[in-house]
Amino acid sequence: RLPSLGNSDQQEAEPTSQESAEELPPVARHAAPFEPQSDAPKMAIVLIDDGSSDIGVEALSTFPYPLSFAVDTSWEGAGEAMEMYRAKGFEVLAMVGLPEGATATDVEVSLPVLLEKVPEVVGVMETPDAGLQDSRDVAAQVAEYTRDSGHGLLLFPKGLNTAQKLAAKEGVRSASVFRDFDGEGQNASAVKRFLNHGALKAGSEGGVVMVGRLRADTISALLLWGLQERSDRVELAPVSQLLRSADQQG
User: Fold this and answer.
1) Hey, how many other C-beta atoms are within 10 angstroms of the C-beta on 94?
2) pLDDT in the model for residue 12
3) DSSP states along 1-29
4) Backbone angles phi, psi at 201, to 5 degrees
5) How confident is the model at residue 226 (pLDDT cuts 50, 70, 90)?
């Protein structure tokens, strides 16, 4: 007898598709859908959520371009925040820092525990004080862990950027933050100036990652800049689009 082509066949096919998605590394599995609208250089805006802001996700879900969020894993509400952002279709990073004097063993013990809090992140972002670059051994262990876990890695510039070079050597998709644009409480005008600098840098490098916080001035500046001043200089994209492999960086 010939097999029937009814619902039973479709039900057998669906898990196969789901299983193949599950086999993707987190940097791809949890990435937001993105279709480039132009050949313009790409810019990713990552906003830090450490639980101190009262700006709700509803106000951000109507943004006319992609945003990404870095959830502070030292915060008890990190898992709930991740779920909230993912439910609205945003990409999420796990923001991780280590205490001064941490060792490679501390990385090996801490990262699995912290990432378990936020299982649907595309990658790890260090704290703005370059909290994963305390020593070469620490940076090397972070690179090895993210290589094995399949997460991307977003680092802040420090010295000769040894940590990112180690990540690239391990084949980790990584990027370096170009500018923390509101870390000193900058007003909306200053934020927009930094965004303009970022757009110029993206033009020369093909793309940049900018980091800010969930502040009223920052959100206002992002909205106005994105609608009025960005023009066709850059295209805003989820952060996973800016996490590059070693061959792309070279």
Assistant:
1) 26
2) 42
3) -PPP-SHHHHHHHHHHHHHHHHTS-HHHH
4) -65, -40
5) confident
144's CB contacts (< 8 A; 6+ apart) are 170
Pairing of strands 207-213, 179-180: parallel
**pLDDT recorded at residue 243:** 96
Q: How far is it, in rounded angstroms, from Cα 249 to Cα 168?
A: 8
Distance CA 123, CA 98 (A): 16
Span 75-122, pLDDT tens digits: 999 999 999 999 999 999 999 999 889 999 999 999 999 999 999 999
Q: Which residues pair with 192 in a beta bridge?
A: none
Burial class (CB within 10 angstroms; exposed 0-12, middle 13-18, buried 19+) of 34: middle
What is the average pLDDT across 152-172? Answer: 95
Q: Positive or negative CA dihedral for 216, 192, 202, 38? A: positive
Per-residue buried b or exposed e for 133-172, using 16+ beta carbons within 10 Å of the residue's own CB: bbeeebbbbbbbbbbebbbbbbbbebeebebbebbbebeb
58 — phi, psi (to 5°)? -60, -40
pTM for this structure?
0.89
